[in-house]
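Exercise: predict the fold of this chain.
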Amino acid sequence: RSFLDEHAALLLTDEAEARMAQLALDNPEQPDVLVHQGLLALCRLDGADKAFALLDDLDRLRRLATSPHLRDKPLRLVALGRLLAGLFPEDAAAQVTLAVSALRVDERAEAEQAVVRAQAVGGGATVAAQLSDVADLEPDLAPGLFHLRSLLG
């Protein structure tokens, strides 16, 4: 937090956000990059106090990242999804949450990487079922979700 406070003018910019996005895509095996990417985006959206408070209340983070009440705030959902997936890299559901939120903001490559990680830790059948459940609830995402299912083999 102190590093952010000292370098906020540099870290909370569009350029820094773009660089973090590229860094995350280039390093899908590095969950800490997702943590930083999500946290910085939440700092920009909600302020540093609220963003960092989520690190102390992981149950709240999980609830927010999957909240149907935030569907109309896709940038917030994807930031929450990144933070959740980065903090819980061995949790298939967290990876699926990121995949779905990434689809909402047309980040297809990010969604694909999240599904691959989800399959690696949770198995293809489980992930496919989760994606199908979301497609039933959110038909507008169905084409992207079916594409993600096709990656599961």
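Check your answer against the key: The radius of gyration is 15 Å.
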